[in-house]
TrEMBL record:
PROSITE patterns in the cross-refs: ENOYL_COA_HYDRATASE (PS00166)
A Pfam cross-reference name: ECH_1
Protein name per its UniProtKB record: 3-hydroxyacyl-CoA dehydrogenase
Subcellular location: Peroxisome
Species, as recorded: Sphingomonas hengshuiensis
Domain of life: Bacteria
PANTHER family the record matches: 3-HYDROXYACYL-COA DEHYROGENASE (PTHR23309), PEROXISOMAL BIFUNCTIONAL ENZYME (PTHR23309:SF49)
Pathway listed: Lipid metabolism; fatty acid beta-oxidation
Similarity comment: family membership: Belongs to the enoyl-CoA hydratase/isomerase family. In the N-terminal section; belongs to the enoyl-CoA hydratase/isomerase family.
Enzymatic reactions: a (3S)-3-hydroxyacyl-CoA + NAD(+) = a 3-oxoacyl-CoA + NADH + H(+)
Length: 675
């Protein structure tokens, strides 16, 4: 059966696409739509056309899986021009998300009707691309340059109501009668002439908007090629006829689709979706029912974890040992919600709704009614074992017992219960209510349905989850260790914190290793004995240089938290250089990359070979969503592929590192980590 079905209602021809899951505009869809347009052109009895989609959404864009392959005719640009040139009104009937090519099809239609819940957007930029089927030309003409810049350069979809206000949607349909409303609309405008043709509209613009937009978003766009290309393109073509503009768009699209950045961003799009698939577990495995969640510990982590569930409408029982800590934790949760509401991202009613789902208590036994209990207490094996031993006695049968440990052995924790099959690691990243990443740690005895339920729960609370095996630091923190260690050694050998951080920031990280230490707290993990000074970090901590919170760490900070190089830190580093007798040499930026980033790839290769990550792309997802690795570099393993394993092996050997056997094998065979 064709993916496009045609039907008629009176003199309206309805073209309906049914190409699950998201009605991507693959070759068959394009061919079917073109045939429908030709049918309408050749039949005088047809006065108007409606383009609609079955299933959960209007076209969600070009079929990304076709990129890089020979393009079958008609191409999307050809198709959208044919729709616009039909000479009879075409109405787009939009539900779900009209994205990318889907938005471009809608823009080529003469009229657009959408249900209120629909969203419309040009997310190509998130794939390192620019809209390539007229979007950069028709959208400014239909909705104005400013909205076009917002939508195309940032890539976030807008709701139907906003689209209506901007003239991007002509009419809102009733939520449950879109097709009927669209057909009625088509009937009303069947004879209206001239047809509103987007590509023929003039663009009016104040030339100052472009620089203002660049400036306002400089931080967000730093390092990315696509947003700059989109802004330049819209600016350059704003005064030119459509035919010229669309030509420039085509060239811009072809250039970006060949770029490493776009390959990296498309890799991450699919990697994120692949990460939710657990090897060896069937998709349809029966899940455990999670109606109430328990959280042990109302500190920063426990509070943040709780917020994820409260925001998703799941009741939470939060347990502390002292009333004061419980009150403080509850107050922080409320304060965070109120701050979100103050920014307009939540209503006061939603704040109360979320808070209403929270049951703070000092009674550990109250966890007995929870289906999933997450421990977020002090990072000590003895403490964790004690907590799990107590949980074992009171948790209901079948409850999932999770630890938020960042490093510790889940199997050892599980062994302190009589039900290791119910124990799993759920490693949230701080701040837990904000960070997208969740490492789900699979213990030796973790049951399949526990793992699958944890994955389903992660989706419910809008996290991107990755399955990790039991090893010290799991995937993310384990790879962080060689980086931090080398960064410290480089200081002794002659580098400065500023140089090392600059190299990382220029690479695209949000901050370098020392800026990160200062933000997280130099005192984290410190032994708290000011007389025991074994390394630079101890020396800083002993002097109260605990980072941003003390206005002094690896940097000095002014009252606005602007950092500057610290003469005192330079002295401390010098003292340690002398004390340890470390020979100095001029350290190049290249050496910093090799020693702090190649070593991460090396650790990633070990993790992969040991089966601690299911696939290389999972490691990439961890670093993109947990540590701010630049998405345009596709994560450490994708980046390793673009550098080439050979070059990385050579770089590691130059500095005397043990090369992971898997990395060496990739280098010898000329293979990539990500196929
Ligand atoms: C473009 O349009 C270029 C044009 O300007 C010019 C061309 C010349 N293609 O996300 P989900 C798959 S660029 C192929 O889990 P949700 C996805 O991989 C495109 N496949 O569902 C997954 O497969 P699997 C611009 C696609 O409900 C399955 O569909 N458009 C595409 O959470 C379900 O996806 C975009 O960038 C695609 N375009 O979210 C939109 N989209 O089951 C990209 C999805 O095997 N898509 N798949 O893992 C999205 O943002 C979300 O998928 C959407 C649904 C919001 C639509």
């Amino acid at each position: 059966m064709s993916v496009i079905t045609t039907s008629r209602q009176g003199d309206v021809l309805i073209l309906t696409s049914d190409n699950p899951p998201v009605n991507a505009l693959g070759a068959a869809v394009r061919q079917g739509l073109q045939a429908g347009i030709e049918e309408a052109a050749g039949d005088d009895a047809i006065k108007a056309v409606v383009i609609a989609c079955a299933g959960k959404t209007f076209f969600a864009g070009a079929d990304i899986t076709e990129f890089g392959k020979a393009m079958q005719e008609p191409s999307l640009p050809t198709l959208v021009d044919a729709i616009e040139a039909l000479g009879k009104p075409v109405v787009a009937a939009i539900h779900g998300t009209a994205l990318g090519g889907g938005c471009e099809v809608a823009l080529a239609c003469h009229y657009r009707i959408a249900v209120p819940s629909a969203k419309i957007g040009l997310p190509e930029v998130k794939l390192g691309l620019l809209p390539g089927a007229g979007g950069t030309q028709r959208l400014p003409r239909v909705a104005g340059v400013e909205l076009a810049l917002e939508m195309a350069a940032k890539g976030d979809p807008i709701p139907a109501s906003k689209a209506k206000a901007a003239g991007l949607v002509d009419r809102l349909a009733s939520e449950d009668s879109l097709l009927a409303d669209a057909v009625a609309f088509a009937g009303e405008i069947a004879d209206a002439r001239p047809l509103p043709i987007a590509s023929e509209k003039p663009v009016t613009v104040d030339p100052a908007v472009f620089d203002a937009f660049r400036k306002a978003n400089a931080k967000r766009f730093r390092g990315f090629e696509a947003p700059a290309a989109i802004i330049d393109l819209i600016e350059k073509t704003a005064g030119t006829p459509y035919a010229e503009g669309v030509q420039a768009e085509r060239m811009g699209f072809m250039k970006l689709i060949m770029s490493v950045q776009s390959a990296a961003q498309r890799h991450i799009f699919f990697a994120e979706r692949k990460a939710s698939k657990i090897d060896g577990i069937a998709d349809d495995i029966a899940l455990r029912d999670i109606k109430r969640v328990g959280v042990i510990g109302a500190g920063t982590m426990g509070g943040g974890i709780s917020m994820n569930f409260l925001s998703a409408g799941v009741p939470v029982t939060i347990v502390e040992m002292q009333q004061e800590a419980l009150d403080r934790g509850t107050a922080t949760i409320r304060k965070n919600y109120e701050a979100t509401a103050a920014k307009g991202r939540m209503t006061p009613e939603q704040v109360e709704q979320a808070m209403g789902l929270l049951s703070p208590t000092l009674d550990f036994d109250a966890l007995g009614e929870c289906d999933l209990i997450i421990e977020a207490v002090y990072e000590s094996m003895d403490v964790k074992k004690d907590v799990f031993g107590r949980l074992d006695k009171i948790a209901k049968a079948g409850a999932i017992l999770a630890s938020n440990t960042s490093y510790l052995n889940i199997d050892e924790i599980a062994a302190s219960t009589s039900r290791p099959q119910d124990v799993v690691g759920l490693h949230f990243f701080s701040p837990a209510n904000v960070m997208k990443l969740l490492e789900i740690v699979r213990g030796a005895k973790t049951a399949d349905d526990v793992l699958a339920t944890a994955m389903a729960v992660s989706k419910k609370i809008k996290k991107v989850a990755v399955v990790a095996g039991v090893c010290y630091g799991f995937i993310g923190n384990r790879m962080l260790m060689p980086r931090q260690m080398e960064a410290m050694k480089l200081l002794l050998e002659g580098a400065t914190p500023e140089q090392i951080d600059r190299v990382h920031v220029e690479f695209g990280m949000p901050m370098g290793p020392f800026q990160m230490s200062d933000l997280a707290g130099v005192d984290i993990g410190w032994h708290r004995d000011p007389t025991r000074i074994e390394n630079i970090r101890d020396a800083l901590a002993a002097e109260g240089r605990w980072g941003q919170k003390k206005s002094a760490g690896f940097y000095d900070y002014d009252e606005k938290r602007n950092p500057s190089p610290s003469p005192r830190v330079a002295e401390i580093i010098e003292e340690f250089r002398q004390k340890t007798g470390t020979p100095q040499h001029a350290i190049t930026d290249e050496e910093i990359v090799e020693r702090t980033l190649y070593t991460m790839v090396n650790e990633g290769a070990l993790i992969l070979a040991e089966g601690m990550a299911q696939r290389a792309s999972d490691i990439d997802v961890v670093w993109i969503y947990g540590y701010g690795w630049p998405v345009y570099r596709g994560g450490p393993m994708f980046w390793a592929d673009t550098e080439g394993a050979k070059k990385i092996v050579a770089g590691l050997e130059k500095h005397g590192f043990d090369v992971a056997p898997l990395l060496r094998e990739k280098a010898e065979k000329g293979e990539r980590f990500n196929k």
